[in-house]
Structure formats: structure tokens, C-alpha cells
Amino acid sequence: MRFNNLQQLVRICEEENKSISQVMLEDQALETGISTDEVFRQMAEYYDVMKEAVSKGLTGDTKSRSGLTGGDAKKVADYMQRGETLLGGPAAQAMAYALAVSEVNASMGRIIATPTAGSCGIIPGVFVSAQERFGWDDERLVHGLFSAGAIGYVIANNASISGAEGGCQAEVGSAIGMAAGAMVELQGGTPQQAVHAVGLALKNCLGLICDPVAGLVEIPCIVRNGLGAVTALASADMALAGVGSVIPADEVIGVMLDVGSSMPSEHRETGLGGLAQTPTGRKLTEGLQEQRRGKSAKPLAEEE
Predict the structure, then answer these.
(1) For 197, which of 75, 119, 239, 266 could close a Cys bridge (C-beta 3.0–4.6 Å)?
(2) Within a domain: 229
(3) Residues of the chain with pLDDT under 50
(4) Is 302 exposed, middle or buried (CB count within 10 Å of its CB: 0-12, 13-18, 19+)?
């Protein structure tokens, strides 16, 4: 890639009068040695999978094998249809769609890790709901994925996208930043505005720990995806309104690395701290362990 940080990316965009997605598409083609058409086609296939996951998750038939989660996306979607949401329709829809994809993941369905399985719902939730709202065609959204990919590339190479290394700020936080920056571009914002959105998003996720109950990508991961979609939209709107990240996005990414490195191991995907070690978290973990040993015939969700 021709860029190592976001400000370099902005500079290339401005000098060549190109969008972030165009730069990323061209650089990806050069790096892989295949044509831009083929690179684009592959990304289009990924977007098809994202849309399929949204549709499947909204059916409510997404119970996880553990029995811990499933069906919440449909609950939110049904609630949204009553017109009583405090968030308003667009944000609630993005939240429902993000939950849907995350529940498909928990039920062992097919998803695209964006950037990880634990954060797989945020970008599809934001993208698919925006597509339906604004009537955008698939081609536009696929370009948006290249924009998100460029942002994720910088985060991964300057901090981390791994919960085991940097906590949930590295997974859900990165996905929020990727979605926010891409949405700015999709709405006609400048590359610099997109980068501001990334900074705004990431600095409000700093320190988010990774504390999966029973070591599964379910609790609290799924709910964090839903709420993350809303944060991405808010960050994009702030940037499009002209709000800048006073701390440059590249510096925020550097702080992500510092914060993640200083987290105790209990807060980095081990399931040994945070929500996983609450009385309820421990009870659920013990129940699942008994279930796996064949001592419990019922799914955990059916037990008292």
C-alpha cells in the first residue's frame, strides 16, 4: 500500500483527486496482482453475504448453539415498526440489522468478518440500512467497503483489530471507525471529513474491554454490535456537520495501541474478567460447561 497512516491516505486522495475507496481499490489490485475489476467483483461477493446475513438474522431463527442468545434482532425490528423508537427509524434499523448479523454469527451462519467475527454486524448494519433508506445501488456500497477496508488496514497495522491483543476497542471500536469513515464518503464527504469521523468514533471506544461470557462471541458482543452501529452513524453525522477530531485520528489509533497493551489479560478475550466474571456470567459459564458434559439436556435459555 502507498499509505501507512490516515493522513498519508488523505494526502494521496487530495493530490490525485480520488476518493478513499478509489485509492484502496487501485492499491489492492497492485498488491495482489489482479485487475481492479476482479478485486471489485470479489468485494461485491462479500457484500452479498452481508445482505444475506441481515435477512437471515431478521427472521428470528438465529438461536445460538449455546442457547444464550438469539431472536433479539427481530424484537428490535418489530419494535421499530411500531414507530415508538427513541432513536428514530434509521438508527434503530441500523441497530436491528447489526444485531441480526451478529446473531447469525453466533448461530454458526455465514458472515463476513469486518474486521472480525466479534464485530461482524456493525458495517453490514450501517451499510444495508443506509442502502435501503437512500436507494443506493450495490456498486456504491461496494465502493464503501473499500473505504472501510482502507481505514481498517491502517488500524490493523498501527494498533490492532484483535480482542486478544487490544480488547474490544480493537474489534468493535475498529468496526465503528471503519463504518463511520465509509459512511462519510458515501454521503459525499471529503477524505479529511471521513478521517475525522474515524477519530471521533475511536476515541469514544478507548478502553473497551473484551469480556465474553463463557468465552463465546455472544454476550456482550452481540449487543455491542447493535450499539456500535448507532455510534458509527453519530460519528459520521458529526464529521459531515463539520465537527473535527481535535486529537488527529492517527494519534487516536496510537493511543488504542497503548491502551490495549496496558490492559490486564483478564480484559483481553480470556473470559476471566469484566462481565464474564459477574455472578450471572459465572453461572452461565458453569451451566454451559455442564451442558457440554451432558449433564443438562436443556439449552441454557430454558433453565431457571
Answers:
(1) 239
(2) yes
(3) 296-297, 301-304
(4) exposed
pLDDT in tens, 23-66: 999 999 999 999 999 999 999 999 999 999 999 999 989 999 99
User: Which CATH number does the domain housing residue 292 bear?
Assistant: 1.10.4100
pLDDT of residue 295: 62
Please give the pLDDT value at position 298.
52
> Does 53 map to a domain?
yes
Asked if 98 and 229 count as a contact pair (C-beta separation under 8 A), the reply is yes
1 within some domain: no
Does some domain include residue 157? yes
Domain membership of residue 94 as a residue range = 6-302
Helix 20-32 crosses helix 6-16 at what angle (to 10 degrees)?
100
Q: How far apart are CA 196 and CA 165, in angstroms?
A: 25
**What is the model's pLDDT at position 291?**
86
If one counts the domains in the chain, the total is 1
Phi-psi label, residue 243: left if phi above 0, alpha if psi -120 to 50, beta otherwise: beta
Q: How far apart are CA 143 and CA 184, in angstroms?
A: 12
